[in-house]
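This entry is set out below.
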Amino acid sequence: MTTSAPRPIRSIPPATGSARRVEILDQTLLPHQSRWLALGDLESAAHAIHSMQVRGAPLIGATAAYGLALAMEADASDAGLTQACACLAATRPTAVNLAWALARMQARLNTVAPAARAQAAWMEADAIAEEDAAQNRAIGQHGQALFRQLPQQPGRPLQIMTHCNAGWLATVEQGTALAPIYAAQAAGIPIHVWVSETRPRNQGLLTAWELKEAGVPHALIADNAAGQLILQGQVDAVITGADRIAANGDVANKVGTCLKALACAHRGIPFYVAAPRSTLDFACASGQDIPIEEREGDELRVVPGLDEQGNPARIRQIPTSEAVCNPAFDVTPAELVTTLITERGCCPASGQGLLALYPEEARD
């Protein structure tokens, strides 16, 4: 049985009230079941990130910030702060938003006495979440403007392809790659979305679930069908999110992204990447310096779903003894990216392009 979350919605609602707690939508159960979970301590927040109950670079950062606030309720000492940051930092290595959020939280908390850290942590975590929501709305408007410039065949909706999930489930609100799609829909632009399933975690199913909830026309495709659709001229543009963008414009995103960029380059159609400031890593020179997370082999060997009675089930399609390789991300070279879409606007995927939007990051 499928249940629906209400819309509009935030993936991590503000932690209000005197007894602060954090709620998340358990994404490991989607799209078959919607269940909100309460995170009560540091350990549950770290588990949620590592197990991908929350996923998507911006949402990981916000969850880590709230996880640190939970930790400060239990132990706000200098040692407690250091230990909590280390615990959360170890959960996912590729998405730079995690390290960014923790560094920002730690810098803020180092300026206050331990007795005041819990309150300060909640306030800073709320600020991170609110900023992400505002940035995503801005990304939506900038991306919609790009969509309006695309050549459109008479009588055919704009055909957009995406990969993985970069909607409100992956952020605090709106999303990154899906934000322009939602903005286009709100502006009355006819649009249809090709949704790549994104194996082995099948996060494309989350995108399909989101788009269905929002009433956006779409079709789910097998990952390997993407190249054929692109080469046949059935795709006007591809847009994805990112887990880290290096200073030179190289993009790390869910594995399979680079193959779509290669097909787009061959066909001469735009390949867009949408991401907020927290995903930009100006300290990382190029994609060669981005750590690529290797996930557990059973993510590839075992397929989750529903049995014939509609109950959650897991089916082993590959024996445990079979050696597998399961990189969670790949790196798309900057030269394959047509445009980066950020909350400050659009730019070429290059060091010069990024610094034009973020001149404060220029280094001597």
